[in-house]
Amino acid sequence: MNALVNLDDPADVADALSHEWLVACLCAEWCGTCREYRDGFAATGAQFPQAAFLWVDIETHADWADEMDIENFPTLMVQQGDAVRFLGTMLPYPAHLQRALESLFAASAESPGPGEDVPLDLRALLRPLAG
After folding, report:
1. Which of 58, 72, 79, 103 is deepest in the core (most CB within 10 A)?
2. What are the phi and psi torsion angles at 75 (to 5°)?
3. What would the pLDDT profile of 106-122 be if each residue is shown by its tens digit?
4. 3-state secondary structure string, the chain?
């Protein structure tokens, strides 16, 4: 699989669903900061094979963000199984994401628990795209 999941490819989406971890960047194509961040986000994805990395344009997938009030970009969501481990904005520096993921992965290995209570479930949104 490429570093970023192709949301238009059912096989790629099905492969993403087989990962324990999902890391999504919720962004907009019109956002210059998002466009500049995309390559770094993808490169970070290549460093974490245990996770599937998704680039979600909220204009294309507006239904995904209906329940969320995304005010700033990029907004990142990290989900382990059915538990959301992080949801929020993050400065668009790949090193920040790398450190955050290292911390989240280590913390969940030590004491996995319930995630944050958020209205968005990436797995539920991806299943119909998997065909």
Report:
1. 79
2. -105, 130
3. 987 766 566 666 667 88
4. CCCEECCCCHHHHHHHHCCCEEEEEEECCCCHHHHHHHHHHHHHHHCCCCEEEEEEECCCCHHHHCCCCCCCCCEEEEEECCEEEEEEECCCCHHHHHHHHHHHHHHHHHCCCCCECCCCCHHHHHHHHHC
Look up the CATH superfamily of 4-130: Glutaredoxin (3.40.30.10)
Interatomic CA distance for residues 126 and 103, integer angstroms:
25
Residue 2's CB: how many other CB atoms inside 10 A? 11
Closest CA to 89 of 99, 79, 78, 80: 78
- Give the whole-angstrom CA distance, residue 85 versus residue 78: 5
Contact 33, 64 (CB under 8 A): no
Which structure tokens are listed for 81?
Answer: 């199984």
Residues 6+ apart with CB under 8 A from 67: 119, 120
